[in-house]
Design a protein that fits this description.
Radius of gyration: 27 Å
Distance between the termini: 39 Å
Number of helices: 28
Number of strands: 30
Shape: globular
């Protein structure tokens, strides 16, 4: 029996806009008629037996746009020509979008209007289809009518995992194929030579330049060092791959494989010639390296930090410049929002009293290591090279400089102890903020089998276990944490530019290459071209930059603790899915300890809540400052570091921020705990974590918290403009410190105050109006913020230092800005910006008490009158800017269309497109859980 009709790579793998040009309606209809013939419907079966569910109907989830991420050629052509959607391709997009205007009237019985029922199993009346993949008798895949989510039930462990692989391929085969090629740096060869594809593969290959032998060794090491669980993980992976490959064979022979294979030239729509390569176990490691690099690898940026420190010292001298730099760095700001807020201290990566081994570059000598060589054809044009470089620089960074390494950590969590809820049971609203794609990077599933019982989301191609979701009587989720597990070493060169000193011996760098070539296809008409990506690896990691230090030529390398260990986290996920293992907070935390990527993990059952910060945090040599490059010498290496395996001593679990049954937890990528320094800048007095903390704190103080109340708190924060809510009041205090006589400024102040009084939300006047309430005030603040920041700080800092600091931390991150791993229209906003700096500086000028102030006052040189003049002058300038100037338009939105500029787009990673939705700043996959009992 053929599998169910399938349904359809990151940001810049867009479906080319040339599709409509070659699709003529008549020919489309003829082609579709021929292509539909191999498809058949599957039988509907009765309700299957389900595992015991202790959630009592109070577990919900959502993952837009829809479960169906595969599409045949016929379905792609229909979508491109007429906008029609394959079944279940976007049926979760509407409910997700509608919460933005519907949350204010939310009631308990309406929760599942905006979320899915995440109970185990499928009621008999809701079964849409049942299949036994490849005719197996030990596994069934049931799909529900509402969302098409696969509910996989196996009687053997092998059958269960075979079914998980089969279902993954049914829902995300093309996406999985794209990302295994991204992980290997082979995207252009597979999907076409578009500049955006070049940029994406370059970004990941620079960070993880693995050979096939490297990928296999990571599997072998993970299995060898984890005993019985390691062997089980290998067996599960083998079964999972068998399921994927079984679907590939079935869809190929049945001719219902994803249509993108035809459009990219891998298959012929008439003869069916061509192949879809089977997946192998090293593909899973390549996939994991992409996901880990995007969301779970905190750290780096030491060279960029050194550049800004040197700029500060050049202007103010070493002592004063260092003090100024530290005040902007906010390593341990007293006013920062904390996840563990009970005062407990977890020192990590703190500033040493007497720094040792620092290898700061000589001013002006830093250059980024070239990656691309031997360009030919379309890759050799100046435009292509420049565009590809730009795409690579922005694929996972926000700062407009190649030196910046500030990655975008995303996701949020709101967890309340049962002591403060109406029912006495803990409540959680949490999920990862992974961007918006079509198909989505994550997929929903339920897996029930020997040693596995869970429902939730997993990254496509890695879904042998649920990675974020719920078990029988507990739920868990994660946010990106960003603590520093990446260090930069200065290796002294010897002999030539490709040899370095290792423990006194001149050692050759290892050259690793990936040669890619492409030719035009229907999907990507980029002319034929090729290039070679070349990385030089040392024992201290790949070379990233070159410079001189004290006149000596060096290469700066980056070493992360998860490098060569992309597969290790599989054990932690296996544990989280095991109902016999997770029986409470301690077991949950123990499972999370086996995840070597940098995440904040949250847990809730019917009685307890818990938190744990994961990641292999290396134990650094005494005196090493994690903020800056150090010499590649034995004295400054990680303690007991073995370069052959990239293993070292890691901080013990007790040293990681962790907690059980705190009154509440919030996380929106804010600081984890007192004295725990993260690699990213911006953990100061104003952070988007405050938007959650302020709301949840009020709920807990009042008591009687419900699922409805916690969802409302999340949804309200999702529409808030952080600058307006937490900084604008003090800006207006300065402006209003004397009567505002200028009519233009006075009118702007009135509009801003009115918006602030109304709640400072970026929300439509009514659902579907595509027009913001208080649109003028929003436009004014969007225009004012960059003007006021520059006018406030650049005169005092000087242009070189101001520019260097904006490379560490961009000044703004509005919904309409191009930022983060997904570029513009990304949803996630207000994570990184200068709001804390403005807040602290303005309060200092006003004479307020500021804990952890900046090293000096900047606005107006510390004069309230001069500061007011600066703010009013820039406010008048902002008020005079038109909407078209503030929102210049792009390939989706006309200039001046404010709502559209903010709107969220499901980035096309295949052939199916979706409409944009109104902005929300919330998790992509999200759970709402309240368990009523426990085993």
């Amino acid at each position: 029996m053929p599998g169910r009709t399938p349904r359809t790579p990151l940001d810049r793998l867009r479906t080319p806009r040339r599709f409509p040009g070659f699709l003529k309606t008549a020919s489309v209809c003829v082609l579709i008629a021929g292509l539909l013939s191999p498809l058949s419907q599957m039988a509907v079966a009765a309700e299957t037996a389900t595992a015991t569910d202790y959630c009592g109907g109070q577990c919900s989830d959502i993952l837009p746009p829809g479960e169906n991420g595969n599409a045949t050629l016929a379905q792609i052509l229909l979508n491109q020509a007429f906008g029609t959607q394959p079944s279940h391709a976007e049926d979760q997009l509407g409910p997700y979008a509608n919460l933005a205007k519907g949350y204010s009237a939310l009631t308990t019985d309406k929760i599942n209007t905006f979320f899915n029922d995440a109970s185990f199993g499928v009621a008999s009346g809701q079964v849409a289809s049942t299949e036994s993949p490849a005719g197996r008798t030990d596994v069934t895949i049931v799909r529900d009518k509402k969302t098409g989510v696969p509910h996989i039930t196996g009687t053997t462990r092998y059958g269960t995992e075979f079914g998980a692989g089969y279902a993954a391929a049914e829902d995300r085969l093309w996406l999985m194929d794209v990302f295994r090629h991204v992980g290997r740096g082979q995207l252009t060869t597979f999907a076409g030579g578009a500049a955006s594809n070049q940029g994406l593969e370059q970004e990941f290959y620079r960070n993880a330049p693995y050979t096939e032998a490297d990928l296999q060794a990571q599997i072998d090491n993970a299995v060898a060092h984890n005993g019985t669980r390691g062997q089980q993980a290998l067996a599960d992976a083998d079964a999972y791959l068998a399921g994927i490959n079984s679907y590939i064979d079935a869809s190929d022979s049945g001719r219902y494989f994803p249509g993108e294979y035809v459009l990219t030239g891998h298959k012929d729509s008439i003869t069916n010639a061509g192949t879809i390569d089977h997946f192998k176990i090293t593909d899973l490691v390549a996939l994991a390296s992409v996901i880990g690099s995007l969301f779970g690898s905190g750290g780096g940026g030491e060279v960029n930090n050194a550049v800004s420190l040197l700029a500060a010292q050049a202007k103010y001298g070493v002592a004063d410049g260092t003090a100024l730099w530290e005040s902007f760095r906010e390593r341990n700001d007293a006013e920062a929002a904390l996840t563990v807020h009970n005062g407990e201290s977890f020192p990590y990566a703190t500033k040493p009293d007497d720094p040792q081994g620092e290898a700061l570059p000589d001013a002006g000598t830093v250059t980024q290591e070239p990656l691309v060589y031997d360009r030919t054809g379309s890759a050799a044009t100046a435009t292509a090279a420049t565009t590809a470089t730009t795409a690579a620089a922005t694929a996972t960074t926000a700062a407009a400089t190649a030196l910046s390494s500030a990655r975008r950590g995303m996701s949020n969590a709101l967890v309340v102890s049962g002591r403060s809820t109406a029912s006495g049971h803990p409540i959680a609203v949490f999920g990862p903020q992974t961007g918006y794609f079509a198909p989505q990077l994550l997929m929903l599933q339920e897996i029930q089998g020997p040693g596995i019982s869970a429902r939730g989301a997993s990254f496509a191609g890695l879904s042998m276990y649920v990675e974020l979701g719920r078990g029988q009587d507990y739920a868990w989720s994660a946010t990106t944490s960003g603590q520093d597990i990446i260090d930069t070493y200065a290796v002294e060169l010897c002999q030539d530019d490709y040899h370095y000193l290792y423990h006194g011996t001149c050692t050759a760098m290892e050259k690793v290459e990936q040669k890619n070539a492409w030719k035009p296809t229907t999907a990507d008409g980029t002319a034929a071209g090729s290039y070679t990506m070349r990385v030089y690896r040392t024992k201290y990691g790949p070379v990233e930059y070159r410079a001189t230090v004290g006149g000596k030529k060096v290469a700066y390398t980056t070493l992360r603790s998860s490098y060569l260990h992309e597969a290790d986290s599989i054990i932690g996920f296996q544990m989280l899915n095991d109902p016999d293992y997770v029986n409470g907070p301690a077991a949950f935390q123990a499972a999370a300890q086996h995840i070597n990527y940098t995440f904040n993990w949250f847990y809730a059952d019917s009685t307890h809540t818990a938190y744990y910060n994961s990641g292999d945090n290396p134990v650094r040599a005494s005196g090493v400052d994690a903020e800056f490059p150090v010499w590649a010498q034995a004295a400054y290496e990680w303690r007991n570091w073995d370069p052959a395996t990239n293993t070292a001593d890691y901080t013990p679990a007790s040293a990681h921020p962790n907690s059980v049954d705190q009154d509440y937890y919030i996380s929106w990528n804010n600081k984890q705990a007192k004295d725990y320094t993260t690699a990213s800048w911006g953990d100061g007095s104003v952070h988007r974590g405050n938007l959650l903390d302020d709301r949840v704190k009020k709920l807990v103080a009042a008591g009687g918290v419900t699922r409805v109340a916690l969802v409302k708190a999340m949804a309200d924060a999702a529409l808030a403009d952080l600058r307006a809510e937490d900084v604008l009041p003090d800006l207006l205090r300065v402006v209003n410190s004397s009567p505002v006589t200028d009519t233009t400024a006075a009118a702007a102040v009135t509009k801003l105050q009115t918006w602030l009084t109304a709640g400072a939300k970026r929300t439509e006047t009514s659902s579907g109006s595509k027009t913001y309430a208080d649109a003028d005030a929003i436009r004014i603040l969007d225009a004012w913020w960059p003007l006021l920041v520059k006018a406030e700080f650049e005169p005092g800092l000087g242009t070189p230092l101001y520019t260097a600091l904006t490379a560490n931390l961009p000044i703004d991150e509005t919904p309409s800005a191009a930022h983060g791993p997904t570029g513009s229209h990304a949803g996630s906003s207000f994570q990184y910006g200068w709001w804390s700096y403005v807040d602290k500086d303005v309060r200092a000028v006003l004479g307020d008490t500021v804990a952890g102030p900046l090293a000096r006052k900047y606005c107006g040189g510390g004069s309230l009158t001069s500061c007011r003049d600066i703010l009013i002058g820039t406010l008048k300038q902002a008020a005079g800017m038109t909407a078209a100037q503030v929102y210049p338009g792009d390939d989706l939105c006309a200039a001046g269309n404010q709502w559209c500029a903010d709107s969220i787009v499901q980035r096309t990673l295949g052939g199916i497109k979706h409409g944009n939705i109104s902005w929300q700043n919330r998790p992509t996959y999200q759970q709402v859980v309240e368990f009523t009992s426990h085993r």
